[in-house]
UniProtKB/TrEMBL annotation:
UniProt-listed SUPFAM superfamilies: Homeodomain-like
Comp. bias (Low complexity): 9-33
Residue ranges constituting the HTH araC/xylS-type domain according to the UniProt record: 251-352
Keywords: DNA-binding, Transcription, Transcription regulation
Protein's name in the database: HTH araC/xylS-type domain-containing protein
Location of region: Disordered: 1-48
SMART domains, per database record: HTH_ARAC
Entry superkingdom: Bacteria
């Protein structure tokens, strides 16, 4: 069954899904083969159930490579008998899945879905944009949407797939994305586990029809829990796509600017942090973001100033105080740049806090 800590153990044997989300014994699997037993569900219910298991590596790789878009996988046996299995209950908005693969697997992967994964057993390392993160048993994490490297070792994984358009439509932002490889804080973890506990067993009862309204409510509950649990990816991070060395250096430059924008930094400091020459930084920024280092820094500082103005107490601070804190020495030029970027004066932004 799907527990909030361990995740969606959708099935252990082929057969019908019971009320607790466990699976009965109505089918069996040979030691060297695999079977798939799709479950019939009422015509109005669009969920489908799939269960495969076996010991044949070639069959396992044919399935996992297609289902998870594995690229150039490299496999090493870790035991004489390679046990593997997969089970999932899916509709057009979401999928609860569990999988196990008793090998050492290195590959690359990516998905059109938003995938939240957490470890049941074994170990797994995900590497994206030069950063390697180990999955922690029972702790969910959003996988990257772009191409990433994976290293699974006798892994048991639990996964929730959310349709990306369904999620962005729900949020009301076509550019919405999660910051990959970030774990939730304590409150976010509690929200996610509570959602898993409340809705998973109902989702897994494929022999019991769910209405369209009920299915949508469950999918929205999981999507909303994900939005509450996981950090949102900042638009400046999504602006740089790709995973080559230049993309990584440019992201380091962006990280540095956002971390140090209040300080007296300029092109030399940004270039050094990125591992580029000043000229190389200028070329890279122009090529990928159509900005100069000065324009990037000014843009980040204006965004920071606006955030501070929107949170500030008018009786305790002023536009001039915030402008100086963000490195703007001339109030008139700051106001003009602010109005050009945001369509209002900084004093209007500060006053708007009193109306909210």
């Amino acid at each position: 069954m799907l527990s909030p800590e361990a995740g969606p153990s959708v099935a252990r044997r082929s057969g019908s899904v019971g009320r607790s989300g466990s699976v009965g014994r109505s089918g069996s699997v040979g030691r060297s083969g695999s079977v798939e037993r799709p479950r019939a569900v009422p015509r109005q219910d669009t969920r489908s159930y799939r269960r495969l298991a076996g010991t044949d590596i070639d069959q396992a790789m044919a399935f996992f490579t297609a289902d998870y878009d594995l690229k150039a996988p490299v496999i090493r046996r870790t035991r004489p008998d390679t046990l593997w299995d997969f089970a999932g209950v899916t509709d057009e908005r979401m999928s609860l899945r569990t999988s196990r693969f008793g090998v050492d697997l290195r590959s690359q992967s990516q998905s059109d879905d938003v995938i939240v994964a957490w470890l049941r057993s074994g170990s797994s390392t995900i590497t994206f944009n030069g950063r390697a993160v180990d999955l922690v048993q029972g702790v969910p994490m959003v996988l990257p949407s772009e191409l990433y490297d994976l290293h699974h070792r006798d892994v048991g994984l639990n996964l929730v797939h959310l349709d990306r358009k369904f999620l962005t439509d729900l949020v009301g932002d076509d550019t919405f994305a999660f910051e990959p490889l970030e774990r939730p804080d304590a409150d976010g973890l509690r929200v996610w586990q509570e959602t898993v506990r409340r809705h998973s067993s109902t989702w897994l009862q494929v022999d019991t029809e769910l209405s369209a309204v009920a299915r949508r409510d469950i999918a929205e509950a999981f999507a909303t829990a994900a939005v509450r649990a996981f950090p949102r990816r900042s638009s400046w991070r999504t602006a740089v796509s790709g995973s080559g060395p230049e993309h990584q250096r440019l992201r380091r430059a962006l990280d540095y600017v956002h971390a140090h924008a209040r300080e007296p930094i300029g092109t030399p400091e940004i270039a050094a942090a990125a591992g580029l020459s000043p000229r190389g930084l200028q070329q890279s920024l122009r090529r990928h973001l159509d900005q100069t280092p000065g324009e990037l820094l000014r843009s980040v500082r204006l965004d920071g100033a606006r955030d501070d103005l929107r949170r500030a107490d008018r009786d305790e601070t002023s536009v001039a105080d915030i402008a100086r804190a963000w490195g703007f020495g001339h109030l008139g030029r700051f106001s003009a740049a602010f109005r050009s970027r945001f369509g209002e004066l900084p004093s209007d932004t500060l006053r708007s806090r009193l109306r909210r």
